[in-house]
Amino acid sequence: MYKGSHGFKRNSEIIAGIMSNLQNKLFSLSLVVIVCAFLIVLFYRGFNDPDEGRYSEIPREMVAGGNWLEMHMLGYRYYEKPPLTYWLVAPAIKVFGARDWAVRVPLLVSGLMLAGIFWLLARRKWERTRADIATLTMLSMIGFLAGTGLLLTDSFLVMWFALTCIALFFGCQPGVSAGARFLLFSVASIAAAMGFLTKGAVAIVLPPAIIFIWLIWERRPATLRTWSVPWVILLCVGLLTPVMLLLEKHNPGFFHFFVIDEHFSRFTGTREVQLHPEPFWFFGMVIPLLIAPWTLFIVRAAWRMIARWGWRTDTLTRFLLVWIVVVVGFFSASTGKLMSYILPAIPALGLLLGRWGLADREDTRRDQILWNIGVAGLFIVAATIMTVWLISFFKIIPEDIYPISGRSVVALFPIAAILIALIATRGYRSFAGLLGLNAGIMLAAALLLSPLAGKDFNVLLHINSSHVYKQLAAELKPDDQVVVFWSYRPALPFYTRNIYVPFQDTNELLYGMQAEPERAWELKDKAQLEAFLQKATGRVFAVIEPQDIEKRFKPLALATAPTTIPCDPDTIILELLRSPRP
What we know:
By secondary structure, the protein is mostly helical. It is built from 24 helices and seven strands. Helix 8 (178-198) runs antiparallel to helix 9 (202-217).
């Protein structure tokens, strides 16, 4: 009886060891797949216009003109953002050339720093396994992939914002020495200054608000009664003042435009042109998308946090809750809203979601039901991706979902294989199994945003004409020029290395045109266009949206010739011919 029990125990230990080894291998494989998905998003796709085009073209013009202190886009002054993003991207262009993958090299560095900062935070405050699961949950969210893979000012802001908040958090820990506090607060001050030069005042206003509210919740506001606080303020002001004066010197009017128009007027809705108006509850729709495919685990996370008094017993949980509420609440109060505005809150939300929603195995019947609800969310996302691919491939609604390349079906293989394996082995009972499915989802999403999906690079969003731009760039000769009709395409000059001429479209260029009217070359009517054609020494190409051909372009009665450059749902390229002189 004793030997039998001993043998059973030994067999159980062997089985447990095998399962643990398999889970470790699955963790490692999933992490490799997730890294591959990030690398594909960073280095194997074209630009999404206008955002990625804008933040690539401005530094390209800096490098081409040799002046990194003046901010221009399409040759016009552009003051809507401070220059740190451009200064981070410009060296990559200088070293690797004006290539779409090259401008994202700084994003790789920023993303690695961001992941390391949050992993360190979780490891310092939570037990190792919980910290690792929380970090992996954060890394495998769509919002984290988008926030570190898209070339936006917000992508760099997320890293500076996180460094500021976390340095202040560690500096305010009980028992920290005066020297360590001084050093941590100094790091926070430098990071806040870098954040301001990346996006603006949110980087220096919101982190102190988060720390102050958290310390009130901790009943330790007196922690801020330290000589390190005035030092932090002086350091930040000392860093920003000479830079802002230098920018104003080389960019006349920058301070007024950026501080007044881009901060106060945009927030209050008093700008002459108010962009992105959305209701107060807009981010309530956005957050479930950004934390996908872990979205439905938020129910379990909330229940466990409340049932286990997590918000009362764990200081990091309280800190992350304040972080999320302050960021989302602040931007909800603004009149203008974009999905990217709340990216600084997404890593904190992911860490909290992983810690309370996924880090612990279910221990009650109710908890098991909540786990299954979360699992269903991953299954729904996986099924949605496969359904959208089928709709696209079979051209069921081609006006909304552009037909996809058949070879991109390989992107679905990992999802299908993992789904079958999870159902057959009940692997969805463990975080390792779900992470494997999520890795397949992320890889599929990345591949469907890449050239593998076809020349459009994108299944749903017709905002990427990189394939067309590259073909046009190959056709252009030194004397050739490009006219863009009624649309705004900052990615186009990046690929062609040739600033285009806008026809009846000012968009974000309006301020620069008004500031320097002598440099403005916008064509306002047909007469100016014909005069431009007569003076041209080379060929002139027209870039037109297909929906504008019949109603807007044909009434101009211009002489044109077709080109061999392929079109896409957003772009048609024609050659404009000179009218014979009378």
